[in-house]
């Protein structure tokens, strides 16, 4: 437990997340009471979708998404409020229209721009890593404004929430307070969205209020209790997410669900016992506290210390993991962050992963677009750690787009990150890793040098085998009905290719024009095998193989390994040998 | 000068004209019942008096020192209120919202006023109870106490006895009469209950699209419109 807590305060990005999270939870709880009781819960949901759309557009336009989304969401809040007030039946339909509409626009904009799939995933499900220092300042100021305004206008907010007509009749400007609440909600949602995710943020608004309504009998106790619940659930969720390496937003929501269940149960028991008006609060608080203690207790004994008697190497993906493993043998512990079978392009390190990186002796990463999180994490460390960035070691090629007819608006100078797919590059990477490792772990330097030499020979042999096989082949072109991470490989051996998408695209559905282009290529070149990439469903490849009557083969990028292959102990070299066999069949 | 003077007023509801050419006056101490068929514009008129809705044309205003700050309103219950977690005291005290002015907190006098009004309506023992757990009659008393917190001079009630049983309804009417007679507060009530209206009110306003009736209760009892309306009810 102490480790998880000290982790919270020792890691700058985590303490930032902690501060912003607590403030946001507080704001959500306060505003939520009013929204839920006024039957406006769905406005929160609608606004978060609008926020998502706005952030997507902002990111595409290169504007800081927070500043871009804020005014748009506030305007949307006023709009939704007007619609909800005008007619009850129109109101919920209008919210559904606006939220799905905004979501669709967001997805459209995203699909027209590549290279921001990671961002979008973050906006949808949230990430505690996205909290920069500026974000903390803005969030804190805004949250304090929300809390302050709520306290100042508490009595008016109660009057307007309980009975709008009465409040209006006695001269209270009810619509002004409604607008105030809507605007504050908009602000809260935009700030909270980065951490909690657009799809989850509205739960923070709804759950605490509904939970506390199970037991509380006065407005003041609902407000107080839901604030307490909200903050405690956030903290428990955050700690849970650190322990189980789960996304923070989802963890917080799960704790909220659990608590709602407990409180509903307590209410049931209470109904049978009758008359526990004041004690109910005590029971509820106990429930929350016991929940947090339960979590804390589970944390006990869990430590983030690794076998410090051994040198530790952390690698982001499978290829560098395998390289390090081959060099280190039994002399060092090698950790792979991307779990076998995990989607590489939407991967985000968990707090536990970050601890692993911070405590390791050598960190090997690609440095490409899908690992854009690496820089901010390395920056946040007080002490610099030893790293090998694979893209610094080899000669880089720009990601290929000519082969895709789908128009992508792309900034120049975006390099393909799958540098290891050429065995010759692998040689250079292995040399770099080995060099760093020998520096770090002097004692075993001699052993490392020997294993490296052996491994390099193997890689060179592999390279030579590819050279002779491909130069002797009848055909010189392959068609890949998939994204194409093997560019360094094809460049190395002068192999021509046609692919559906560029290397890092998260797309899996090609448009009809792309498919017909690939089918034409297959027919013109008289190609017998269409390839898909390992771990992909290969829907495009299968469509082509059906239309052009070809076989479907699999190429391995060694970026992520499937769980079965990992269990079976496959390596970079063994997977490359599969590529060798597959290509040999396809090209002859 | 009258508390409310209404001259040649036209009212609309969702773009249909509901009341045409309406004129009446409410004086201090009056007990006015507004009756009429469903859709005859009773609630619309109440809302227009309170300034929540605009009139289509004509003159409708307060006089003799009456403003929105010293009239109390008891609206029809909303669905949201049925499960609203608020204590009786919180609801009653919120009646002082118009008196609070620019201050953040309620003053001591305002809190005292809330306690007095709860005392008047016999709901002081319910002070810390949850509003949603009260009976219908108790809820109406709470809302009445809230209206009294807002009102020095006049209260407006929109069908306050809907859904109450006959005994509770009779109690509520007695309470209103007491407020009117003993505390000298002018009462304007929308009602479906024609017989209770003629038994309690000093004045009746019978709303019709054209040719609404306004006058003292005695006059109303003699009018054709009452005879037709009450006869129609008897034949049901």
SSE layout:
The complex is a heterodimer of chains A (588) and B (236).
Chain A: H1 2-10, H2 12-37, H3 41-61, H4 65-86, H5 88-112, H6 117-125, H7 133-152, H8 154-162, H9 164-169, H10 174-196, H11 201-213, H12 219-244, H13 248-273, H14 279-299, E1 311-315, H15 318-328, E2 332-336, H16 351-359, E3 362-365, H17 373-380, E4 387-389, H18 390-393, H19 423-440, H20 445-471, E5 477-483, H21 487-493, E6 496-501, H22 512-525, E7 529-533, H23 539-548, E8 551-555, H24 563-567, H25 572-587
Parallel strand pairs in A: 1-2, 1-3, 3-4, 5-6, 5-7, 7-8
Chain B: E1 4-13, E2 16-26, E3 31-35, H1 42-50, E4 57-62, E5 71-74, H2 79-82, H3 88-93, H4 97-100, H5 108-120, H6 136-150, E6 154-158, H7 166-182, E7 186-190, H8 194-200, E8 203-206, E9 213-216, H9 217-222, H10 224-235
Parallel strand pairs in B: 3-7, 3-8, 5-6, 6-7
Antiparallel strand pairs in B: 1-2, 1-4, 8-9
Helix pairs in contact in B: 5-6
How would you summarize what this structure contains?
The complex is a heterodimer of chains A (588) and B (236). By secondary structure, chain A is of the alpha/beta class.
Description:
The complex is a heterodimer of chains A (588) and B (236). By secondary structure, chain A is an alpha/beta fold. Helix content of chain A is 65%, strand content 7%. Chain A contains 25 helices and 8 strands. Chain A has a 4-stranded parallel sheet, with helices on both faces. Chain A has a 4-stranded parallel sheet with strand order 6-5-7-8, sandwiched between helices. The model of chain A is unreliable at 402-413 (pLDDT under 50). By secondary structure, chain B is α/β, with parallel strands linked by helices. The longest helix of chain B is centred in the last third of the chain and has 17 residues, at 166-182. The model of chain B has no long low-confidence stretch (mean pLDDT 86). Chains A and B meet through helix 8, helix 9 and helix 12 of A and strand 5, helix 2, helix 3, helix 4 and helix 6 of B.
